[in-house]
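Batch manifest line 308
LIGAND: phosphoric acid mono(formamide)ester
JOB: complex structure
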Amino acid sequence: MQHVLALKGMDGKWIESIVDLGIAMKKDPSKYSQALKGKTLAMIFQKTSTRTRLSFETGMTKLGGHGIFVDWRTTQLSIGGIPDEAKVISRYADAIMVRPMKHETVATMAGPNASRVPVINGLCERYHPCQALADVMTIKEKKGKLKGVKVVYLGIGNNVSNSLSYACSMTGADFTLCAPEKDPESLDREELETVKKTGHYKEEPDIEKAVKGADILYTDTWVNMEYFNDPKFAPEKARREKIFMAYQLNRAMLERAGPQANSMHDMPAHIGYEIDEYGLRGERSLAFDQAENRMWAQMALLVKLIGQ
Ligand code: CP
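JOB STATUS: finished
ARTIFACT:
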């Protein structure tokens, strides 16, 4: 049984096999319409979501299975003890997807004496593995390959850049982090050492040097969703807005990269902050393909984890 708490530990071949299966499913969904017949995915959310919830649930439907949305606050997870509750859920469901407040929660659910079925991380403060699988699928779909594709991530180093840098560098895409700061909550030194060893990861704070010749410019929110409207976080949000504005993924940034460059954003996006209207909705944007590909990539992942 395999849990997917992060991509850390997965090799490039495994990542690309998910990507290729996701592309095949998108081309011919009818071939996979019974692949998870009778299977159930429990989808537990401690935080809000549009893409993760909808893509997992519709993905299960397309595979002949069923997804159950579980709001953390209406369960006994907080009072019953996480390992026991996860163990119970795994007596009903064939897999569990959880979007926790903290990584520790998803790790506990996958730990000893807890779930006996695969546990998938649907985003925590350190990793967003399902997003990264959809992102590399989108890059391969658009560019026809991953090896040698230049991916530049602009803004704050965070959970999304952690998983994306891992997926890119393990599959031979060249990843550059162009970020003046990293979100301290997202740091994983062990994963960083692993991606550095691939030779496909670098950090380049100079914007001009980083973006020139890039095939993909990628950005994400500068402030995580749980803090976005939190008045206590407002001074830090204002500080970040000043620092990161120079890294905005906009029309001028795409022009600096060159005509081959596409823009990507995992969404939800904040127009006028980390991205402009053109970067998100213009003809060079892959953001909506990324959002769709969450579903196909996760369908591929689910079939790998719980299919026959
Ligand atoms: N990108 C992403 O995870 O979107 P949601 O927060 O809407 O699930």
